[in-house]
Amino acid sequence: MNEPWEEPTEEDGLTLGPEEALQREIEKSKTLKVDRLRLRDEIEKLKTEKSNLAKKNQQLKERLTKLGNVDTNLDTTSPPSSKTLFFTLVLGVLVLIWLATRN
Q: pTM of the predicted model, to two decimals?
């Protein structure tokens, strides 16, 4: 029971006096504050980037919707197909032959 009291050791195995222990705690506190500020800045940057990406995503969705509407409009007013053109050409040739034989 009469064992001498020993100072607690730090991580590196050294026994520190009260001033050194206090100095280490102050350094740790400063480091943590700097890390906290850095993380806060990074969070703000990420929030801004997220907001910008959300806006861009919305714009792209709107463009897709508009392009989808344009595609459906093009389908209703699409140019004649090759089958229609071929049929018209054959009909024209037959009409010319008929007119030539009539005279």
A: 0.46
